[in-house]
Amino acid sequence: MDYGFRSRNGLNFFQIDSDNKVLNVAASGTYTIGKPPTAPVTITRAVITYPTPITTVDAPHVFLNPNNQGMYHSLVQMGAAGAWTGFYFDLHLMAPFNGSDCSGRWLVATFRSTSTPSEYDLRLRNANNEQIFVGADNLLVMTGFPINEGWTLDSRGGQVSGIYWSGCQMQWTGSYDDYFLASTLLGGKIYNGNTTLATPCGFHAGVRSTLNGYVGALVSSEGGTAKNGRTTFAARPMRPL
Predict the structure, then answer these.
(1) Which pLDDT belongs to residue 230?
(2) How many other CB atoms are there within 10 angstroms of residue 232's CB atom?
(3) pTM of the model
């Protein structure tokens, strides 16, 4: 490494440097979607606006964590490079999500340090004198390794409005404290051999042993066979938000 910090204790290893960057929480909050007790109708889209724009060139990483259940799709980042202003995503309107409260918590993280150092603190900079870490940063702790092609078919599929939805799932952490990386998992549609369709993902009520999802098809012969192959991982903030 050229610029950074490395420590070793027995078999444990810790490293933060200009090459091995860490994700820092840049903003967080809650979202309302579905049918909360106070909502007269189902809210089909959650729109999040950051308190201040995020000025990184690359789009921030968006993480979601439903309070209980929630199945979402079509996440879109708002703004542009150097001025990311927020994001929005839609509710999967298959039962039971279209009649349930699917609200939860969100956070966004970047590979840039934005915290103000405390009076006594550790600060690291790269060759361009950019701050890459301070002890005041709220880092994301990965609690589940990145997985792709980890999906297996389950029995939760069904037909809704002419679309044949195949249900799929992957192993998860079991904890309600863990967020899933949504900006890669929900960031677009897939081509299933017939057309492009949304691939909603999230959690069923009371279930955190698996992350679940659906893939749609317009013909019955394709229904029940397609699997989501996108990558995601579980993470939680190092400090309370």
Answers:
(1) 67
(2) 25
(3) 0.88
